[in-house]
Amino acid sequence: MTSYWLLTAVVYVGCLVAPLALVLLIRLWYLTPGLSGRKTPALVLRENTCRVGVLLGSGGHTSEMLALLESMDATRYSPRIYLVTQGDTLSEERTRVWEGQRGQQDGDHARIMLRFVICQLPRARNVGQSFLTAPWSVLQTAYSAAGILWHYRPDLIVCNGPGTCVPVCVIALIYRALWLCPTRTLYVESFARTSTLSLTGRILYPLVDNFVVQWPELQKRYPRALYRGVLV
């Protein structure tokens, strides 16, 4: 008798979970531009400002990102949530200096400085780390990113190449699929990539809402990509 009720419970749970899982899979497919072929509609802001998450990384990624943000309206794109990997003190310090300079230029240093926060993420993969242990590091990064995105709920995430971009953008996609957070994702390929995409770029090309390249040769090879000239 116990087995009968256990089997019945399993069947009922399965009948409830299966349709929900199917709906989630269909929504994930629909929200993934590289699979559904859909064009991302314009971002509709809840307010006059846009909460923007910015991923920074060592090896020149931070320099390119800060150069990219130079033309940004600091008042409109606020607050800014900077995501840096643990131990990347140089990127963190450069960001604080850059924000301070922007505040001085805008003539409202104290107010501008209150419009950004720097959050740390575990590295998705350390230099020289074995590929056998890398999945565990990626999961740690994803778990940390999930908490940050849930807390700050950015309208937009901008990234340009660090491996940490992958779990962050995947979490953002899952949150959208679950109707938890409407975050859009924007990937800008590095200026150094003239004819081929980086590994991060190849992974995120079908996943992000907008994919920007800085060389026309790349736009020809990757039709989803947007080309707006050299941005940095």
From TrEMBL:
GO biological process: dolichol-linked oligosaccharide biosynthetic process
A single Gene Ontology CC term: UDP-N-acetylglucosamine transferase complex
Localization in the cell: Endoplasmic reticulum membrane; Nucleus membrane
Keywords, in A-Z order: Endoplasmic reticulum, Membrane, Transmembrane, Transmembrane helix
SUPFAM superfamilies referenced in this protein's UniProt entry, alphabetically: UDP-Glycosyltransferase/glycogen phosphorylase
Domain of life: Eukaryota
Gene Ontology molecular-function annotations: N-acetylglucosaminyldiphosphodolichol N-acetylglucosaminyltransferase activity
Record-linked Gene3D superfamilies: Glycogen Phosphorylase B (3.40.50.2000)
Protein's UniProt keywords contain Transmembrane: yes
Bilayer-spanning residue ranges: 6-30
Pfam families: Alg14
InterPro entries named in the record: Oligosacch_biosynth_Alg14
Membrane topology per record: Single-pass membrane protein
Subunit structure: Heterodimer with ALG13 to form a functional enzyme.
Job of this protein: Involved in protein N-glycosylation. Essential for the second step of the dolichol-linked oligosaccharide pathway. Anchors the catalytic subunit ALG13 to the ER.
Similarity comment: family membership: Belongs to the ALG14 family.
Protein name stated in the entry: UDP-N-acetylglucosamine transferase subunit ALG14
